[in-house]
Batch of 4 targets.
Target 1
Amino acid sequence: MKKRKRLAILAAAAFVAAGCSWLEPPGSGIARCDKFPRGGYSDGRDGRSSDSTETGQQFIPDTIVWASAVQVPDDYYWPRDTAMGVMDAKLLLFKDDEQVLSLPVGAAYGISPNPETHHLIGGKLYTEFNSASGTQIRRDGELVCHYEGREVLKGLLPVMDDIFTLGLDKDDNSLVYRKNGTIMLKMDGARALGGLGENAPALYMDGGHQYFAMHQSGSTYLVTDGSMKKADAMSNLVMDYRIADGVPYCIFTMGNNIFLLQDKKKSVLCEKLGALEDFHIIVTEDGVFAAGTSSGNTMVRNIRDSCTLEFEGESLFLYESRGKMFSVRAHRPVTVREADTSLPGNGKLLMEGSGCYFFSRGCGFALEGSLYLAVSAENGPPFIWKDGEKLREFSLNGYLTGVEVQLTSPN
């Protein structure tokens, strides 16, 4: 998962099998009610705060579920894709049950059917598209950036009225940091740590500052608000380096082990033998976690108390909220597990679906201790899954490309 995959929809169809099998839902609990989580996962958090009256009465916020989908004609069997991108298709945006946007898909419109080019951030649908004429970024269908260079986005960060991007140029293999399409930094032969569609974003905010880290010429660099300096890290042996609440965290290899460096405090995560180079730092409102593949499974270390979880499968998508860590295995069969971040052990199985599609990390969102999944089925309409049951079904022939959940102040 270190490399961002850009596969056609047909490639995903390779792991289809018949039917969907849903397990018993997880145990219910008392949800605490906060409001105004940050949209998307641009800074790795789901910020929250309480709202109460002078008498101490707490308001219960409303929940909005955003979902994006690609719709194709009713007589077209999209899992066996033969004409995707050149046929009549639409990109739709739903706000709960209401369709609020419909955009034509195709090169002529600068919108791709690939789910990994669709990004729900703050209730806005951003799309990326690159061709021989350059790169286009659209927000709800409106062109907001168009620049020369065929860049695959590694980071997308809307800040007020500005849009910051981190892109990998396909032609010269450079890493390009832009503000509203204008180049701020261009780094030849550099590789970003993290990225869109990965558990750890490449471009993120912390304490009002923008950050991203990268490898270049055997060294690791941290870029803060566009200013680049060498990181306090172990050169190109670094797997991840990021700032959380102003504290630097670094995962690196040395000798026979993989280490975590937390503000100059070093500890062993696991042995290097049998581990993949996919270890990364996950930052949420509840804490900081180190995760990666070891001996065929995905391990997650709660850095606060060193509690270690283990999920079956390699390089899983991970989501955390309210002390619950969820894992999603996107390949056949789509599998979801849950674990308590304060208790060591293996995650319990919540769902196992054959014949179901989970296209990208953007198809999952955790909030208030619940996991929302945008699930597409081989035979049947796509739907939103929440805590063991179908929350919403969409009457269309096509597939879901993303989901985002927001809490708003009540009416």
Target 2
Amino acid sequence: MVLFSSLFSASLSADTVNSSTHREHDFDNNSIVPFLEDQGFTGSAISGEGMSFTNSSTGGLRLKLTWKESEYDGSRRERGHELKANVVDDKEIFTGFHWRIPSGQSNNILNKNTIIWQLYCWNSAGCSNWTAHVELKSNDDLYLNYRAACVSSTEVKIYDNVSTNTDHAFQIRARASGQGNGRIDFKRNGSFEHQETNISFGFGSWSNDEMADAVIGVKMGMYCFDTSNYSNNEVRILYLDNLGSCVRTGSVGNSYNLIDPRNY
């Protein structure tokens, strides 16, 4: 069993970037650094808390997330297993990752509703909550939800019929705005699947259309929020690899390139 502390002290691999504005990792050194475990932990052994490393189909290792209903204790933190990308900004965030759903293994993730990516808005005024998320629904489709306050969200479909046993290379650009010129762009394998433009999302007050008292940041993994739909002893499994997040760095194209999982 690998201890949580030893994972953080492990040396970083060649395919790792660790700065306050750009972090990426390919998990090939059995570590989640420079990302942070944010959900599902109850002790010091991360490998016993739903996170482990397994061989990747593209070479090296990938992160395996395994959520078990039997471990749910009624608390929010035990509704899933997530990583915090550990990059924040008051305007714009880019995220890239390889994402894979394994078939078999008694995997129930395709029969449920599970959030796989969340854009949080940490707001000093008191509304610390998500402002956008991507949800895998039980009909095997991906949906984007976004909102400009702690109210009901706008929901749009971004991708039909997610295939299993396939490495999907996703990139997401999120630019917050309180003046209706925000956008969330969703790429898969280098091509745009969906662009939601001329929108408002993000909480708090604004100055020159930048958040004045809040920042946005990304969480990745599984958040199994659909507690009323849990099945006794169900298991949900998901693979992540080549995860990256950065603030706007130069051009939009350059920022996409920095977190493109196909470049690792």
Target 3
Amino acid sequence: MMNVYARPIMIVSFVVASVLGASFVFAFWMDQSIAIGATRSVLFVVILACVHLAGYLLYVRQFAEGCTGNFTTPSASATEVAHRKPRQWFLGSVSGYILLILWMSLHG
């Protein structure tokens, strides 16, 4: 059963994380230039929006009608679970690359 508060929770999470993160990024880079601080803050917000959107879509997709079982369910067989592991690894590596790019852009 899908949580009916999923969308408001993701919106609040995005707004809080964006405001706090962008303000810290701007405060850190403001010493070099206001334009650099603003640009990197906007980049932070865009990346955070993509991460929140991807997480929300993955959450909603697991409850979609006709889902072919991209997520582990109690009735999933061992072969179904084995086929999901590469997808989970891919999603983990993509999020790792996003965090690496974000870190490099902020400290670079």
Target 4
Amino acid sequence: MLMTPMRTFPSLFVGRRSLVEAMEIDAVEAGAQGTAFTCGACDAVILTAESREAVADVVVKCRCGEYNQL
């Protein structure tokens, strides 16, 4: 599984992105296929997906409070 860090930004997002709240994810249990995306602030795995294109229009709010996007 490829680990990809997301970048954080300070506040609300602009555009057509959807907000997703992160849940606790075990990257090993999620499987070896696809990509695991990590929070840019705390390095926790916050999202898994088959490809980067699947999360191109998504903003993920981590449990630490930071907003992340690709």
